[in-house]
Each structure stands twice: as C-alpha cells, then as structure tokens.
Amino acid sequence: MSLRQVLIALGDPFVEVQAAPHGLEADVLDVVILDPDDVPDIRPGDLVLVVGARGRAALPLVKAAAAGGAVAVAVKADAPAPVLRQAAADAGVALLAVRPEVRWEHLEALARGVVTNARLTADAGAGEAVGDLFGLAQTIAALTGGSVSIEDTASRVLAYSRSSDEVDELRRLSILGRQGPEPYLKMLREWGVYRRLRAGEEVVRIDEHPELGIRRRLAVGVHAGTRPLGAIWVQEGAAPLTEQAERALLGAARVTALHLVQQREPAVAFRENLLASLLDGRTEAGSLAEQIGADPDRPAAVVVFALRGQEHADRTEHELRRAEMTGLISVHAAAYRRTALVSQRSGRTYALLPDLPPKAPLLALTREIVAAARGHMGLRVQAAVGCTVPTVDEVMVSRGEADRVLDAMARDLDADVATLADVRSRVLVGETLALLAGHPRIRDPRLTALDPELARSLLAYLDEFGDVRTAAAKLHVHPNTLRYRVRRAAELGGFDLDDPLLRLFAQLQLRLS
Fold it and tell me: Other C-beta atoms within 10 Å of 420: how many?
C-alpha cells in the first residue's frame, strides 16, 4: 500500500503532510516506533513514528529514519519546526505532523492495521478483494449516509470513514483513542446495547441525546459463528440515514467478519481466494461449497460487474475506485446470501450467489447494486446476470454466460444490467464477429477498400433494410446524401446490393471496422 493510500485511509484527524520531497507513491511495508533511547533499526519501506521527541529534539531521529530508508517520519506537533521540514526535504523522506492529542499507541494500531490488511489481501491473491477496513468503512458510510467506525470487542476503533459531515463528541473522542463520555457509555451498558451486539446480528437503534451532544446511531455486531469479533457503528449526520441503512449494515457485518478473522487468524485467509480458485479451475465447486457452508445441491448463479468510465484515471485512482465497487458488491451480496463470495479477476468483479431460493430476485438485487454504485459513489457500473444453475457444480456455466453478456454490453449496449435473454442477438453476433476477426483471410476486399465514410453509410443503410430516411436521420445527413454514398460504394466496390448474401456478409464485415 502506498503512503498516499495509508494517508487517505487515516485522514483527519490524525496526520498532515508537511514535506514529501519524492511524492507519496512509495510503498509502506511496516510501521515502527522510534524512541530517543532506541538504537535505530529502520528498514526501507518503514513508516516511522517518532515518540518522545518534538521540535529540534526530533531532528536526529528524522535523519536516522531517512538514512535507514524510511518512507515517512511522523512527529507530534501542530506544525513541525522549519528545521525539521528542511531536514526531511534534504534527506528525501516524507514528514508527517501528528496532532498533539492523538495517542501514539492508537495511531500505531490503526496504521499497522491498514498496512497489514493490505499485505494479507495481496498474499491471498485475487480473492475476495474488498479492500482494507478503512475502504470498507467508507463503503458502509456511502450506503448508510452516516459516519462509520469499526471497533473490536474492547471498543477500540479499528477503522473509520472520512466524513465532511458534523460528528459528535463520542465519535471524535473514540477515533482519537480517548474515552467517550462516561454517562453515555453507562447508559449503553444499562440499555443492554453491548449485550445485544454480542448476542447476534440484530441492528440496534440508539436514540439521539442532545443533552450529551450525542446524535442518533445504528450499530450491529460482527461475529464469526457464535464468537463476537466487534461492532460497526453508524452516526447520523445532518441528513437522515438512508432507507437501506439497516440492511446494508447487516451485509457489512458479514464482510467485516472476514477481514477481522483474516487479521486474527491468517491461516484461514485461504477462504479469500476460494472463488478466484474456482474461476481459474484450481478448486472443485463441491469443495468450495463445503468450505463456505453452502448446500452444493441447491441452485446458484454468478453475476459479473465491470467499472466503466475510468479509462483516463491513473492506476492508483482506478484501483481505489474498483475496490470501492467491490466492497459495495460484497456488502449487498452478503446481506442477500451469507455464503456469497466476491472476487476480482481480469478487471471484473464476480459474485457467486449459492443457496438460491426458487425465483430468486437476482435482477432486482443486481439493479440495486448498480444503482447504489452510481447514487452513493458516482461510479458507472455495468452488470451481467448469469443463468441460475441447479447445483454449485454447474456455476461455471453461469459464469460463462455472464461473461458473454458483459462482453456484448461493453461493445454497444447502454443498459446497466442485462441477462442473456435481453441481449441474445448481440451476444451471438459479437461472438461471430470475434471468430471472423480471428481469421483475416475471410474478408471481401471490395468492402475493405471502402473509405470510412462510405463504409459507415453503407452499414447504416443495410441495418435499416434500405430505409434511407431512417438511416440518414441516424447519420445526421440528408437522405439524398446517403443515397449518393450508397450508390458510390456499390460503384467503387463493383458489387450488387440486390444480392442477399452480399448484404448479409457486408453487415458482418463492416461491423469489424
């Protein structure tokens, strides 16, 4: 994970960049504490937290960190002394200012969580790549319309969403690692909120308390089986929470559980790669069903998603946006089916939905995901729904159909969601064109010789069955202009447009242009 991504994840109110002589794209490999009494043991890629020294006193530690190859050095200060900024710039290391009220141990735990989670996700391959916990918190915030924090069973904040909305004192203090208002925490205990969060998947509603400066909240427990792992809290801001906030929280809790289990027990991280292994043919469907607790004899389906309109985004931005999309898909899929799996492969995101009931509303679910991606995140997403197959053993049939549909959608379809029944003719023609493109010798040289304007005009004419007025309107030219172009194309090519076989092949070949 690059330093930029770590800083994006941490955001306010922790750190602020004071110097970055080589930019923020270097990878952060570890987070280390450096004390004035320590013998510096800094390695390339370290993010160094300088503890116990401020101002000029931190100067030797900043230089030592830079000499060891550190990516960045963080010091406590509202604004580091100019000599520190100059030293960092001269040494070629980024300098970060940490707010004085932030607890070092809390900042270290959060930063280490970001870096460790990114490493575990990378080690797991292309599995259920829903991004780090901070990215997931941001996804939950977009779906619920509130400010999100993810906590462990000791109420320590593991990740939180960035928010421009107003936050209350409880959220501010919790993020900074300090104790929340005791009267409010006592009430939560008396109301049984913590007990309910530990007991199951119930979404708990907590009313606003203006006298304590506390806004309305929703919370849900995060569990691995019957074992509690933590909780997700959503604070309402100036605007009400979204209508689907509670349902989104349920799915988010199940996705968050995967992250927390992976962090606690890396040995079970193989589950993250199960769907990717199935798609690659490295895992049998029956084995996968057993691992995720799905019934292999019940219906299943695959839905595939692709992010559109990111052609001009830089690589980092594109990956962040794709991670946001995948996180959103994971939350919705987990809310619908506990055993759902999500994985990125070859620029696409696949969702496996096992244990489907009769007449499962897959189209409605997929449209909801695509609408949420556009409405909450501003992402243009296209999705193709594969056929529902009788058993998990046949999911590759569903995956193949979904891929065929999405291929057709990418070429010439404006729809956001489609099935094979919606685009069958486009799929078949597209696959025929792919075969034709793979055999260059199968060409009519008379058509190849036409200039682009004549070729476009002839194709439009053929597509409209010779209806000159309709074809001309689509090309935005006068009907007489189109008549001239079609006649000219036939004259130059020396072919007869009354020949039905010529017309059939011309439509195919001209679509290759």
Answer: 18
